[in-house]
Design goal:
Elements lengths: L1 H26 L1 H13 L4 H33 L6 H25 L4 H36 L1
Helix pairs in contact: 1-3, 2-3, 3-4, 4-5
Length: 150
């Protein structure tokens, strides 16, 4: 049990750090997008740079919709609420946010080819989270059935 607490603590610390990085990315988003547009994407016209900036900020909203519920789920697990319906709802929110990020990155792919890769990664992550959600849901059902038989 002690080992699990350490892992959960580090996961929560990592989630806070990633959230802080997202805040910094929001603060310097315009500079980041200009760098990506000019250096990586080879995009120099203002309308496409503005489009990339909007896409970037929509993506960071999706990032918050992943990180904040993830922190909540880790907090639940710290309280020994693992196989709980609330956690499956949180995983549904995370999956939907990841699919939204994938759509956002797909739109970005029409301007910068790197967006396609990011969309594939986001879809893969959503598939992993959805699969874990199904396992959790099945475990909850089995636990409830066992509780009724005792």
């Amino acid at each position: 049990m002690k080992y699990d607490d350490v892992i959960l603590r580090w996961a929560k610390i990592a989630t806070v750090l990633f959230t802080a990085m997202a805040v910094v990315a929001d603060i310097f988003g315009v500079v980041i997008v200009k760098y990506i547009a000019y250096v990586w994407a080879g995009v120099f016209d203002l309308p496409r740079v503005i489009a990339l900036t909007v896409i970037f900020y929509i993506g960071t909203v999706g990032g918050y919709l992943v990180l904040i519920p993830l922190f909540k789920m880790l907090s639940n697990m710290s309280k020994d609420k693992v196989f709980d319906r609330e956690n499956t709802k949180i995983m549904t929110i995370i999956t939907c946010a990841l699919v939204g990020i994938a759509v956002d990155c797909t739109v970005c792919g029409f301007i910068w080819n790197g967006g396609w890769i990011l969309a594939i990664v986001a879809l893969f992550m959503s598939l992993v989270v959805l699969s874990i959600r199904v396992v959790f849901s099945k475990a909850i059902t089995m636990k409830e059935e066992m509780d009724l038989t005792i």
